[in-house]
Specification:
With about 325 residues, the protein is an alpha/beta fold. The protein has 2 domains: about 5-115 and about 295-330, Quinone Oxidoreductase, Chain A, domain 1; about 130-270, Rossmann fold, CATH 3.40.50. The chain contains 10 helices and 15 strands. The strands form 3 sheets. Strands 3, 4, 5, 6, 7, 14 and 15 form a 7-stranded mixed sheet that branches. A 6-stranded parallel sheet has the order 10-9-8-11-12-13, sandwiched between helices. The model has no long low-confidence stretch (mean pLDDT about 95). The structure holds NADP nicotinamide-adenine-dinucleotide phosphate. The site of NADP nicotinamide-adenine-dinucleotide phosphate has 32 residues, from α1, α2 and α3.
Length: about 325
């Protein structure tokens, strides 16, 4: 094992903000129980924010972002894991206050580690990553609140994004009649391939003038967009329907009223992947491998090297990416 390895390092000084591939040593890594050779990481919206000077994600500099990683255990002081074992780490403080997945090696607490479930490769696990896990948690919580394919159309907002693409594909696989909402007219074919039955524009889902209650269209919804879009989705949700909200791409203020809740018995389900309890995390990763892995995973997944990563991180903040991007850290030229 060489003493040096590569990582994407963001640094902020009074004069400058830089995002560069740099050479690190094992002494640079934070403390942890499990040392992992990272094979793949992925690109999430939060990683895009972590790679900007004012993204309010990174707590101190220099820093290695990347909220997801998958790889093999090099050594472990935690007896739940052994050398050579394939593992996934997502969320907690990874890529936020603890050096993350954009690095050939990572050192993490044992409680953050999930064994790679049978039926998934390391690369596939990162095609899901935090975005796919969040989509799976949304689907699971909607079903726990009573949603079935017989209830009617289920809306997915921000459908070409990471959470959105995964939610469309997972819901379609489970037999739901999925309506995908997107701002990208050029990607209608992609969404159809993922299994969307209908496609609606962002403007149709979020009209200029919001009404507290509107036509009852959706039996359920996966909403990683938030803001005004969430308010509008709530007003279009059927009596007793549920909306799983995970994101804030369109903003944090939700201009709604109590009417969807007290007149239509609508359920608003909060989705948090970061501190999702470990038992649920492990069981959901197993479920992803067993019955939520979509047929068209290849279609959703793009791959970049560490050197190509800064461009993708900038693109995701501009809404220019599609689906999920995995970062290959096994390339010679990574
Ligand atoms: N709660 C959690 O645990 C959790 C976990 C993961 C992610 N998240 C959050 O979920 C959100 C999505 O994450 P992601 O990784 O899927 O990001 P992403 O890949 O960038 O997807 C976001 C999608 O939202 C749509 N969009 C962009 N700007 C918009 C706007 N101004 N108004 C309406 N729609 C807009 C775009 O899809 P279209 O062009 O198709 O409309 C875009 O592709 C982020 O806010 C992220 O922080 C939360």
């Amino acid at each position: 094992m060489s003493e040096n390895f590569k990582a994407l390092v963001v640094n902020k000084t009074e004069e400058d903000f830089t995002v560069n591939v740099e050479s690190l040593t094992f002494d640079d890594l934070p403390e942890g129980d499990v040392l992992i050779r990272v094979h793949y990481s992925s690109v999430n919206y939060k990683d895009g924010l972590a790679s900007t000077p004012n993204g309010k994600i990174v707590q101190s500099y220099p820093f290695v972002p990347g909220i997801d990683l998958a790889g093999t255990v090099v050594s472990s002081q935690d007896d739940r894991y052994e050398e050579g074992q394939q593992v996934i780490v997502t969320s907690y403080e990874l890529g936020v206050s603890h050096y993350g997945g954009y690095s050939e090696y990572a050192n993490v607490p044992g409680d953050w580690v999930v064994p790679l479930p049978e039926g998934l490769t390391l690369k596939e696990a990162m095609a899901f990553g935090t975005a796919g896990f969040t989509a799976a948690l949304s689907v699971q919580k909607l079903e726990e609140s009573g949603l079935t394919p017989e209830d009617g159309p289920v809306l997915v907002s921000g459908a070409t994004g990471g959470v959105g693409s995964m939610a469309v594909a997972m819901l379609a696989k489970r037999g739901y009649d999925v309506t995908a909402s997107t701002g990208k007219e050029s990607e209608h074919g992609y969404l159809k391939e993922l299994g969307a039955k209908d496609i609606v524009s962002r403007e149709e889902v979020t009209p200029e003038k919001l009404r507290p209650l509107s036509k009852q269209r959706w039996a359920g919804a996966v909403d990683p967009v938030g803001g005004k879009t969430l308010a509008s989705i709530l007003s279009n949700t059927q009596y007793g329907g549920s909306v799983a909200v995970s994101g804030l791409t369109a903003g944090i203020d939700v201009p709604t009223t109590v009417f969807p809740f007290i007149l239509r018995s609508v359920n608003l389900l909060g989705i948090d992947s970061v501190y999702c309890p470990r038992d649920l995390r492990v069981s959901l990763w197993n479920r992803i491998a067993e019955d939520l892995k979509p047929e068209g995973l290849e279609e959703i997944m793009n791959e970049v090297s560490l050197n190509e990563l800064p461009q993708t991180l900038s693109d995701i903040l501009k809404g220019k990416t599609r689906g999920r991007t995995v970062v290959n850290l096994t390339n010679e030229d990574s």
